[in-house]
Amino acid sequence: MKITILFFSLFFSLCSFANNIIVNGTRFIYPGNEKEITVQMTNTADRPAIAQAWLDNGDPNESPDTIKTPFQITPPISRIEAKGGQVLRIKLMNKQAIPTDRESLWWLNILDIPALSKKEGKDENVLQLAIRSRFKFIYRPTGLGTPESAVEKLSLIPKGNQLSIDNKSPFYVTVTKISTDNKGALNDKTLMIAPYSVETLTLSKALKSGEVVTINYLNDYGADVANTVKVK
Q1: Rounded to an integer, what distance in angstroms lies between the CA atom of residue 92 and that of residue 111?
Q2: CATH classification for the domain delimited by 7-140, as one of 2.60.40.10, 1.10.8.640, 2.40.50.100, 2.40.50.140
Q3: What is the pTM (predicted TM-score) of this model?
Q4: Which of 73-87, 98-112, 121-135 has the lowest mean pLDDT?
Q5: Homologous superfamily of 147-230 in CATH?
Q6: Which of 34, 116, 136, 225 could staple 27 via S-S, CB 3.0–4.6 A?
C-alpha cells in the first residue's frame, strides 16, 4: 500500500526561507496612504508548487484559521507553475483598528508546498516537506517622519554590562550590532525594539557615560546601516 506523508513545518520552521519559492523582500512596509501593497512570489523549481499566505499577530504557532487581522490577502492559496510567479495583494480592510501615532507589526507567512511528480507519486513511501517563511510586515501611518531618524532618537542607558535602549521614536528599530570600533560586536543577538519602548541587552563589556558607540540597524530594505550614538 502506498503511503504519502505530507509534513507541514507550520510549527517547526519559524524563520527559514521557503524551499523553492523566492519572495521579493525580507520585510514589507505598508504605507498608510496606500490602498494595497503587492508581494511577488517566484517558483524557482522545475515543478509546480502550492503557496499559502497569511498574516499572524506574533504567535507563530497559531493556526491560520483562527487568526484575525485588519488585512486581506488575495489569493490566500495559489498554485505557482514551475519557473512561474504569483502576485499577492494585501489590502487594509479596517483602518480604525490600528494606532495612528506609531508603526504596528504583523508577520507575513508563506508556506511552500511542492507538488509530487508522477515518479514520486508511484513510490510506496513519499516524504513531502512544506517549508514556511516568515517576514516582518509593518504598517506605517502617514505623518510619522522618516524612519532613518529613529536611531538618532535612541537613548542608551548603561548599567554594568547591561545596556537599556529606549526607543523614543514611532518606528520599529532592529539593532544588529553595537560596537565601539565599528568592528567587533559587543552584543551576541539581534534586538527589535518596538516604538516608545525599552529593551535591555547584555554586552561583553561595560560602556561608559558619554562614550560614542556605533549602532548597526536594518533599514526598510533589510540593509545593515551604521550610525553613531552617544551613551548617556
Answers
A1: 21
A2: 2.60.40.10
A3: 0.86
A4: 121-135
A5: Immunoglobulins (2.60.40.10)
A6: 136
pLDDT tens per residue across span 43-86: 999 989 999 999 999 999 999 999 999 999 999 999 999 999 99
* Helix (H), strand (E), coil (C) string for the chain: CCEEEEEECCCCCCCCCCCCEEECCCEEEEECCCCEEEEEEEECCCCCEEEEEEEECCCCCCCCCCCCCCEEEECCEEEECCCCEEEEEEEECCHHHCCCCCCEEEEEEEEEEECCCHHHHCCCEEEEEEEEEEEEEEEECCCCCCHHHCHHHEEEEEECCEEEEEECCCCCEEEEEEECCCCCCCCCCCEEECCCEEEEEECCCCCCCCCEEEEEEECCCCCEEEEEEEEC
